[in-house]
Amino acid sequence: MPLDTDSLLARLASAFPGPALLAGDDIPARNLHDTSFLANVTPLAVLRPDTPEAVAEAVRLCAEAGVAMVPQGGLTGLAGGGHPIDGAVMISLERFNGIEEIDPASSTMTVRAGTPLEVIQKAADEAGFFIPLDLGARGSCLIGGNIGTNAGGNRVIRYGMTREMILGLEYVLPDGTLVSGLNKMLKNNAGYDLKQLFIGSEGTLGIVTRAVLRMHPKPGCVNAALCGLGSYDDVVNLLAEARRGLGPMLSAFEVMWPDYWQVVTETVGTRSPLEGKHAFYVLLETQGLDEEIDGPRFMSWIERVYEAGLLEDAAISQSLSDVQRFWDVRDACAEFMTRLGPHCAYDIGLPVTSMDAFADACRSRLVEAMPEALSVYYGHIGDGNLHIVALDRAVKEQPMDRISSIVYATVRDFRGTISAEHGIGLLKKPYLPYTRSAEELALMARIKAALDPAGLLNPGKVIDTPTGDLK
């Protein structure tokens, strides 16, 4: 029989003394929400275990009591995956942080789930290696959340999603079973690759506790160019030329529509490295081994595509500070909340050739429904990922449901995906059928039911449990 609230809190207090358990007024405001702009929710309690075994014990106690659990990381998610649920226990990994091992021979790093991404990046750099995963929230997002959402970021075109750098994984199942598969081997085909179930599952199938990350050699040089182009056809052709002419050196291909550029340079106040206005703006980055060889190779390629008429203008980096200055233009979207006020942010995927037509259609539909609508478009176009920021300037409280219905219906019409790298969580769940077939959704539900038959782990997120009553 499920325990009553007081009995559960007493058992949790006994198992998790001191700062490991927060309840009532002791729960910090940061644990009442993530970055999805959903209303604050005060949970039953926040548990902050600091070992894998403690995470397993927390899950076991909650499962025995029939109480829902929500895993929390850095709380930087935009889809509501880490948002609290009334009456649930939050299991925060923030105290379980640190790097356990760097193995140069296998080029691996073993990390705890509560470790910030930026800490991992710096540790790899100091050891002479490189972690390619990079997000704007690098200083506050935690690697467990990155794994749970299969985060993408800026360099997917070369290195792939988070999934591509996970060799081994340890996780806790919804019944409290701790499963350790901290494999270091690049080749390991011994049975099912179970870790793939938990990467991108947003904490609905298990809670990640530790991971073995694959590191890459540190680049010997980095070069970048910020380019102005005259048409979207030129953007597509430039991408093809970059893949062909730069090969594996190409590490980023970021495209910014003129509406984004205008907001960044005029509203945010970021200084433009280019003169004049252009139909599109592209940030190219390459990572090479030797500046004396790869630097001239990059310059030669830029000259060829300029002479071919693909570029109207280009600013070329002369130093790493120039590279950072170019990225500052692309990363200025972090200032949108301050400068634009409340808005709706979207992360979608589309075939590269469809992106400009999609942007035109989406912009028109938003203005037709809301004459004062503003929408801007930008993203990691090299890997098919487009970001959208939209708002109705006529009102202060944004009509998120109305804007979302227009954006996602347009995504469906263009046969794209409603989520490229930010997950589904709560906010995108109603639109998941736009992207996944009925058969796929049914299979997801069967997997959820098999691992979490009571539906207690992050309930209501991503997919519903078809059997069992949620507590």
Shape: globular
Please compute the radius of gyration using only Cα atoms.
23 Å
Spatial strand sequence of the major β-sheet: 15-12-14-13-17-18-16
Measured between the Cα atoms of the first and last residue, the distance is 12 Å
Tell me, rounded to a whole number, the average pLDDT. 94
Quickly give the structural class.
alpha+beta
- Counted by DSSP, the helix tally is 14
Low-confidence stretches: none
Which strand-content bin applies to the residues?
A: 15-25%
Task: Work out the helicity level.
Answer: 25-40%
CATH C-level category of the largest domain: Alpha Beta
Q: Quote the CATH topology of the largest domain.
A: Uridine Diphospho-n-acetylenolpyruvylglucosamine Reductase, domain 3
How is the main sheet built?
A: 7 strands, antiparallel
Task: Kindly state the number of beta strands.
Answer: 18
State the domain count: 4
CATH architecture of the largest domain: 2-Layer Sandwich
Protein name: Oxidoreductase
GO biological process, one term: respiratory electron transport chain
Keywords: FAD, Flavoprotein, Oxidoreductase
Pfam families: FAD-oxidase_C, FAD_binding_4
Question: What can be said about this structure in brief?
Answer:
This protein is of the alpha+beta class and 471 residues long. The chain contains 14 helices and 18 strands. It is 32% helix and 20% strand.
